[in-house]
Structure formats: C-alpha cells, structure tokens
Fold this protein.
Amino acid sequence: MKNKGVLLSLAVAVMLGMASCNSGSTDSKDSTEAINNEAIDATASTDSMARAQKQDVDDVIEIASAGMMEVELAKIAVNKATSPQVRKFAQMMIDDHTKANDELKSLAESKSIVLPTTLIDKHQKVVNEVSEETGKKFDKKYMDTMVEDHREDVDKFKKIADNANDAEIKAFAAKTLPTLMHHREEAEKLEKITDKM
C-alpha cells in the first residue's frame, strides 16, 4: 500500500512538472484533467472505483472554479457596486470564499487532486458578463448572479455531502453548506433591493 502511494505521488509530481509548461485556460484545463485521470487510473483497482473517484475529482474541480469565480466577481463588486450593501455583501464573499477555497486547496492536495489555476470556461463567461455592466445595472446583475450561483452551490454541495465517495470530501461539503445557505439568503434579500433601484 505504501508503494502505491509513493508511485502515485511520483506520477503526480512528474505530470505537474509537464503541465506547468502549458499555457492558456483550455490547455490548463485539459492538462489538469489528464493528470487527475492518470492518477485515478494508477490507484483505482476496479472500473467502478475509478468512476467513483473521477466523480469526486470532477466535483472538487467544479467547486474550486466556482469558488474562484465568487472571489473574482466579489473583488470587482467591491470596487464597482454603487450600493454600500452590495459592496458589503461582496466583501463577505471575498472573506468566506477565500477561506473555503484555501481549505479546498489543502484537501485537494492531500488527495493528490490537481486543481485548475484559472476559471473553467462557464465561470469565466459569467465574470465577463457581469463585469461589462456599470452603475445600478452592475449591482442588479451581480446580485442576480449571486442568487442563481448560490442556489446552484447549495444544490451541488448537498449532493456532494450526501453522495461523495470520499469521506473527507463529503465532510468538507457538509461543513461548507451552512455558509452557502447563508450567502443564498443574503443574496436573495439584496436582489429584492436591487430590483427596486
């Protein structure tokens, strides 16, 4: 069992070195996926185990990118929002999601999961769309996005907390869920205010 872990760590280290030569978000995403898939293939003893591990890895990558998106959008909102309440909400996003992102990064490293260093395409598209707006339209677009995003986050984290194959990934999702639910509630309140602006 020890040898298997050493081999996996060595394989991941070699692949990380190769991946660092790549540039661009698509190349980075493809490299990350290839590295994680090879690591899964090296450790999974059955096809069903490999599928289960791949689902956990895919979930972790998805929530890592979503967390980075939350922080990136919030940094824009802190500077661009017209409403002090929206700026305060954005600062809460920065604080809470930076903490959760750091915890997820440590968890991923302990599982030899390679996280993307850039947003996946769908999250980058959201950042681009929201940041195009200005003034009160920005506030509304940002809060509408936060409501939709946190509804998706809560559903995703509930699913991971209930169904993840890895106990530590399950625990991370369960621990983070109450914060996300609080964010959703606050976003819904602010969305009503920005609708009237």
